[in-house]
Write a structure and sequence with these properties.
globular; two-stranded antiparallel ribbon; seven-stranded mixed β-sheet; 44% helix; Beta Polymerase, domain 2; Poly(a)-polymerase, middle domain; 316 residues; alpha+beta; Nucleotidyltransferase; single chain; 12 helices; NT_sf; 9 strands
């Protein structure tokens, strides 16, 4: 029995809903709240209210891989340098959580990870803290611009440098765009399930631009196919850009080599071809979360004849 691709993808999204793991999510929220309170108590008037960001802030989280992010907006005169700010927040969190045996605290690319010890249920809670400093005195509440520090060479930036970003603008850009968020979640499921290294933020920006610059209509599969086709056709264009809504001078395409671009185009094309040839192949690229799969109709369960592409075809 052939798979109804649109109904299947709807079920994929349903099985990856965060509501299935409410109890675990609440544990994350509790730890995030604890960290926010600690930061506000320690830094008092040196910071503005910490901001929830990342996939939770954008409503694009999936339940197979997630963490919670906090952006801590510091006032311009709180630290002499961006590096000093980053290291000070790390030192505070290390003293608060690692020295007391509550968590491991580590420096990451632009964030500081707080990885709490597994609880009695075996759950390990991870919170990423991103310190940022406003660009000019008293400007944050009006424009929400922040400078963030790079602790490692990454995304085309060198360790020790900093970049302007606007987390609130990134969140606002995706607000109320329900169709886009569905496709973004599906691409994150593809990325995670197929061990792809492309950044989730890159997939997010591709999706938003596809809807803005192309005609993406129809049912859920047709919209997904439209985005995949847009990526396939445009990622290898030399003049193609993907501007960060939080900093228009930050073009994410500059971080991709020509091989990366061609490889991604091939993967999108192969995915479309394989799913068009045999609707069963959609299960390879967009698997359900079996822990929460209850669908029993529309050819979603019990189907046979799964056509697995050869290794050299599956990933371009």
């Amino acid at each position: 029995m052939a798979v109804n691709r649109s109904e299947y993808l709807a079920n994929v999204l349903e099985t990856h809903r965060m509501s299935h793991i409410d109890k675990l999510v609440q544990k994350f929220r509790d730890k995030r709240g604890h960290i926010k309170e600690a930061l506000e108590e320690h830094y008092t008037s040196d910071i503005y209210s910490p901001l929830n960001s990342g996939s939770f802030g954008k409503h694009t989280a999936i339940n197979i891989k997630f963490d919670l992010d906090i952006v801590v907006p510091f006032k311009r005169n709180s630290f002499a340098t961006i590096e000093e700010m980053y290291n000070a927040v790390y030192d505070f969190l290390y003293e608060k959580y690692e020295n007391t045996g509550l968590a491991q605290v580590r420096k990451q690319k632009v964030s500081i990870g707080v990885i709490f010890k597994a609880d009695k249920d075996g759950d390990q809670i991870s919170i990423d803290v991103v310190p940022g400093r406003e660009i000019s005195v008293d400007s944050y509440l009006d424009v929400r611009d922040l400078n963030i520090y790079f602790n490692k060479d990454t995304w085309g930036f060198s360790k020790g440098t900093y970049m302007k970003t606007n987390i609130q603008s990134q969140i606002d850009t995706i607000k109320s765009r329900d169709d886009e968020r569905k496709i973004i979640r599906l691409l994150k499921i593809w990325k995670h399930s197929n061990s792809e290294s492309y950044k989730s933020f890159l997939m997010e920006l591709f999706t938003l631009k596809a809807f803005d610059k192309s005609t993406i209509t129809g049912n859920l599969w047709e919209k997904t196919e439209g985005v995949l086709s847009y990526i396939k056709d445009n990622v290898t264009r030399e003049d193609f850009t993907l501007k960060d809504p939080g900093n228009p001078s930050n073009d994410l395409m500059k971080n991709l080599t020509w091989f990366d671009r061609q490889n991604l185009s091939n993967k999108m094309g192969n995915m479309i071809d394989r799913i068009t040839e045999n609707s069963e192949n959609i299960k390879i690229y967009f698997p359900v979360n079996k822990d929460f799969d209850t669908a029993e109709s529309y050819g979603l369960k019990g189907s046979t004849g799964l056509s697995i592409p050869k290794d050299d075809q599956r990933f371009g």
